[in-house]
Design brief:
Elements lengths: L1 H6 L3 E4 L9 H13 L3 E3 L9 E3 L20 E4 L5 E8 L3 E2 L2 E5 H11 L1 H6 L4 E4 L11 E4 L2 E4 L2 E4 L4 H6 L11 H14 L6 E3 L6 E5 L3 E5 L2 E2 L9 E8 L47
Antiparallel strand pairs: 1-13, 2-16, 3-16, 4-14, 5-13, 5-16, 6-15, 7-12, 7-14, 8-9, 10-11
Length: 287
């Protein structure tokens, strides 16, 4: 699995872990143990959580201090800020919440075929909102390209459209060009094309591992069960690959949990926060 994720097609799946039979401690231990065969855990949020709980805690679309994962809204195709993201399904939603993945290189090549000028525009930095996760000395916005080649290897970064839109509120940030706006629209059109994306309904006990520099992922909007004990619940882990692909220098400013200068997503963890594994979602503290 690790070789497939790191140097192959960029994703792998574990299916059939009997999570319904396990208490939370055993669920976490099994998930942690499997994930440690893939890479080194790094915090997926500003609270130092080494495993995060993806659950709707009522976050709204217009709360610019929060990520959208802790809501029931649709998440367009995007990348997480690490080498590999793992998602374990504890419970699916009553309706919706379907996962889909797409090859970043396939999207790039289709853009290159259809509109070379728009493909080239995404090699230029795109403006994005940090959503409150600002590194020391940094700005609340940042810029990075969607596509890059570095030392002969493709790297992609899927930006959420809401983060592009909310970044426009910063008056000191350079505006995106009309060509980049058109390129982003085409990018998402191709990502959602059934010829390119693979739709994967999560079942309890499934783990999806994705290499973020090669694969973009999405989630449809969902409706939860009225019973709070049946709410859709995924556990997310972010992993570093110490021997993974070297990132382009233009990508290094994105990761708030690593020291700028490292060459891989999440390879050097900040020690400013206590690292913890929460057993349950912590709604007030989530980001």
């Amino acid at each position: 699995m690790r070789a497939t994720i790191k140097d192959g097609i960029g994703f792998s799946y574990v299916r059939g872990i009997p999570v319904e039979q396990y208490d939370r401690d055993t669920q976490l231990r099994a998930y942690w143990g499997i994930s440690r065969h893939i890479g080194d855990p790094v915090p997926p949020n500003r609270n130092g959580h080494l495993i995060g709980h993806v659950i709707d805690v009522g976050d709204t679309m217009n709360d610019y201090s929060k990520r959208l994962a802790q809501s029931a809204f649709e998440l367009a195709f995007h990348s997480d800020s690490c080498d590999v993201v793992g998602l374990l399904c504890v419970r699916p939603a009553m309706r919706g919440g379907l996962s889909a993945i797409v090859s970043g290189l396939a999207v790039h090549d289709e853009m290159l075929r259809r509109a070379p000028n728009l493909c080239a525009a995404l090699y230029e930095p795109v403006l994005l909102d940090r959503r409150g996760e600002v590194p020391p000395g940094g700005k609340p916005w940042f810029r990075m390209p969607v596509f890059a080649f570095h030392k002969g290897r493709f790297s992609g970064y899927g930006p959420l459209p809401q983060y592009i839109e909310s970044a426009k509120r910063f008056t000191d940030a350079p505006a995106m060009t009309a060509e980049q706006d058109a390129a982003i629209r085409l990018f998402y059109e191709i990502c959602g094309d059934d010829r390119f994306c693979l739709r994967l309904p999560f079942r309890p006990g499934d783990i999806q591992f994705l290499q973020n520099h090669a694969i973009f992922h999405s989630r449809t909007e969902f409706e939860d069960w009225p019973d709070a004990t049946r709410k859709r619940h995924l556990m997310r882990i972010w992993l570093s690959l110490p021997d993974g692909p070297e990132l382009p220098p233009s990508f290094l400013g994105k990761w708030p949990n690593i020291d700028v200068g490292t060459k891989r997503g999440g390879a050097i963890v900040s020690t400013a926060k206590e690292l913890v594994i929460p057993f349950e979602p912590e709604a007030p503290a989530f980001a």
